[in-house]
Amino acid sequence: MKILFTRLIQSPLLEQISKQYEVVMWNEENSVMPRNELLKEVADADAIFTNLTDRLDAEFFEHAKRLKVVSTMAVGFDNIDLQEATKRGIPVGHTPDVLSEAVAELALTLMFACARRVVESMQFIKENKWESWGPYLFAGQKISGAKLGIIGMGRIGKILAKQAKALNMDVIYTNRRRDEKAEKELNVEYRELDSLLKESDYVVMLTPASNETYHMMGYREFSLMKATSIFVNVSRGSTVDEAGLYQILRENKIFAAGLDVFEVEPIQQDHPLLSLDNVIALPHIGSATKETRDKMVEIALKNILNGLNNERLLHTVNK
Ligand code: DGY
């Protein structure tokens, strides 16, 4: 049986796997397997180890005649046509939980970096502009005592809420469904989106990409936020209308935005958002700690082995 890896993966499990299975792996570190190669290689593959940069749509599944399992090294699976997979009886595995702390930590990193203008300040030094200490030099915003609004109270949202509580923040959230258990356990309060935006000093987007969440933050929603507030997105770029975000930041109607995800990735250098001083942009590194990525690989590999052995995947999104 053949396992197709669309990325170069390292894992101690691979040695054993390659004794039992034919392993075909894209071998360039930081590039995506070209579409034509993907469609060609998947034609006789029994399993695929994929990730958020591959588009597994109807055309892909048309080519994947022998596929028994799809395993994505990610918690998000908006790049996979679940209906097509399910129609063909193919389980789709993903890697939740192990990345929740890392993604929550990156949300905090962006909150702090935006609040204290870390990137601008460093640039200032590099450009040799620092002449003396100044009473309001790069004065930013405080985190302790501020109010955090979380959009999407799933696994990552709950961990972020705990971390924020340890920083003495007030936490409110909005979600598709109200979560009274989380409210009690974490001491957080539910709000409708508009109220959350009006009240929060920090707004963190954690909701998954879907038709319902497409562009859920646009100019109207950003206008509700305080002029001193900070917006952070560590979920998916499609949840934000970037034109609206650009406009609001340009007008200085919010303080800053910290973005790990974009509507089109990689974001192009000439994208208007990158021209703004009040934007911090990162290359989708939410779960990128070595330990987390190792665990994601391990779970994704186990999902494949379980799928090939007709066993239940550790984490599946369609079965
Ligand atoms: C995910 O797992 O969906 C993340 O975006 C990858 O870092």
From TrEMBL:
<dbReference type="InterPro" id="IPR050223">
    <property type="entry name" value="D-isomer_2-hydroxyacid_DH"/>
</dbReference>
<dbReference type="InterPro" id="IPR036291">
    <property type="entry name" value="NAD(P)-bd_dom_sf"/>
</dbReference>
<feature type="domain" description="D-isomer specific 2-hydroxyacid dehydrogenase catalytic">
    <location>
        <begin position="5"/>
        <end position="318"/>
    </location>
</feature>
<dbReference type="InterPro" id="IPR029752">
    <property type="entry name" value="D-isomer_DH_CS1"/>
</dbReference>
<protein>
    <submittedName>
        <fullName>2-ketogluconate reductase</fullName>
    </submittedName>
</protein>
<keyword id="KW-0520">NAD</keyword>
<dbReference type="Pfam" id="PF00389">
    <property type="entry name" value="2-Hacid_dh"/>
</dbReference>
<dbReference type="GO" id="GO:0030267">
    <property type="term" value="F:glyoxylate reductase (NADPH) activity"/>
</dbReference>
<dbReference type="GO" id="GO:0051287">
    <property type="term" value="F:NAD binding"/>
</dbReference>
<dbReference type="InterPro" id="IPR006139">
    <property type="entry name" value="D-isomer_2_OHA_DH_cat_dom"/>
</dbReference>
<dbReference type="GO" id="GO:0016618">
    <property type="term" value="F:hydroxypyruvate reductase [NAD(P)H] activity"/>
</dbReference>
<dbReference type="Pfam" id="PF02826">
    <property type="entry name" value="2-Hacid_dh_C"/>
</dbReference>
<dbReference type="InterPro" id="IPR006140">
    <property type="entry name" value="D-isomer_DH_NAD-bd"/>
</dbReference>
<dbReference type="GO" id="GO:0005829">
    <property type="term" value="C:cytosol"/>
</dbReference>
<feature type="domain" description="D-isomer specific 2-hydroxyacid dehydrogenase NAD-binding">
    <location>
        <begin position="108"/>
        <end position="286"/>
    </location>
</feature>
<keyword id="KW-0560">Oxidoreductase</keyword>
<comment type="similarity">
    <text>Belongs to the D-isomer specific 2-hydroxyacid dehydrogenase family.</text>
</comment>
